[in-house]
Amino acid sequence: MRIIEKSAFLTDKNNRSSAYHSQTVRTRVAEIISTVKEQGDSSLFTFTEQFDGVKLNELRVNEQEIAEARDVVGEDFIQALQEARRNITAFHESQKQPSWFMGEQNGVFLGQKITPLDRVGVYVPGGKAAYPSTVLMNVIPARLAGVPKISIVTPPQADGKINPYVLVAAYETGVDHIYKVGGAQAIAALAYGTESIAKVNKIVGPGNTYVAQAKKLVYGDVSIDMIAGPSEICVVADETANPQFAAADLLSQAEHDEAASAICITTSEEQGLTIQNEVNEQMNQLDRHDIIEKSLEKNGRIVVCKSLDEALELVNTIAPEHLQLMIKNPYDHLHMIRNAGAIFLGNYSPEALGDYFAGPNHTLPTNGTAAFASPLGVYDFVKKSSVIHYTENALSTASESIITLAEAEGLTAHANAIRVRKA
């Protein structure tokens, strides 16, 4: 994890490319999607055997498998999961949006009708780790929005079963269907439907580069939440930051995969060196050491800025997924942050708290998209319809203005649709 100055960091950042934009991956994903559209379930069995090394007899998880999973995970996990579920539910309750209407005045009645989506598909990653937290963060807001049908797709393990922690999380949140399929083929199945998997209206959830590209390619035929990944953290650490804590938090994101990004911004080169040493010392004690080492070599940086203002300006340029303000009086500087997916304040608000337990959603914009995008929420699982009613007198009063505007655009049929209604 190298220490560099701001100007060198910006140059370095601009020169780094991402596999998420690979044309080779895009071409292969397009082929997979086309195959699933043509062959349905049979292609899912074939791709699962090819990519996951698992030969399945059925795609859908049954009730017996869920019951077995509950026995495996133990009561401590179930209790922790339920506590996290309560926190996440409480936070997202505040995001619910009612329909609203403007009372009739002068013959005009207007409003907005909020309607939940009919079907949602949630992608839960497998591979390098299992993510029951992803189940909670995606299913709970969809349920609160009123979505009646929620399906999960997730890669099977080597034994042909779904990770038991993911299964129990799905059961606890009331998921309707769980399918043993991952990768781009799972996204295609949700987008277009197969004999076993119903087509959905929206696909949410993170995944690898193939999943990200698949979501990008099916967008328009279905809605998606965002193109998420790789995971990112940016820690702003002044002289009051605990270097041990800062290092641990940087490592917590670097362990996701080799493409993850861990950036520390500090106003003190001495503090930067201390954090660098802490990172190296802690890394050697962690199970996912090899992944972390590759991640930090490629995308780990400690950036030294001349002042806190310059550091926060750099944060807005990066627009990180996760931002930790480990600085003196972080509340006083919160107004300066314009671009960040989630903001953690102080030494005792680690990013891992947000991943699992605090309540705000951990599905966040990445790759600089926090400059224009927001965390996943209840609002992502509803659609809005405008409601318009004019009485005859109200339309008559407005008719000449409408006709004038329509004729200015050369749309005489529009103007005529008003004119024929004039008294």
UniProtKB/TrEMBL annotation:
Active site: E321, H322
Function: Catalyzes the sequential NAD-dependent oxidations of L-histidinol to L-histidinaldehyde and then to L-histidine.
Entry EC number(s): 1.1.1.23
Residues reported to bind substrate: S231, Q253, H256, H322, D355, E409, H414
Originating organism: Virgibacillus phasianinus
NCBIfam families, alphabetized: hisD
Required cofactor(s): Zn(2+)
Source species, domain of life: Bacteria
Family to which the UniProt record says this protein belongs: Belongs to the histidinol dehydrogenase family.
Catalytic activity: L-histidinol + 2 NAD(+) + H2O = L-histidine + 2 NADH + 3 H(+)
Pfam family, one: Histidinol_dh
Record bears the keyword NAD: yes
GO molecular function: histidinol dehydrogenase activity; NAD binding; zinc ion binding
Binding site for Zn(2+): Q253, H256, D355, H414
Pathway it works in: Amino-acid biosynthesis; L-histidine biosynthesis; L-histidine from 5-phospho-alpha-D-ribose 1-diphosphate: step 9/9
UniProt protein name: Histidinol dehydrogenase
Gene3D superfamilies: 1.20.5.1300, Nitrogenase molybdenum iron protein domain
Keywords: Amino-acid biosynthesis, Histidine biosynthesis, Metal-binding, NAD, Oxidoreductase, Zinc
Keyword match Oxidoreductase: yes
Binding note for cofactor: Binds 1 zinc ion per subunit.
GO cellular component, one term: cytosol
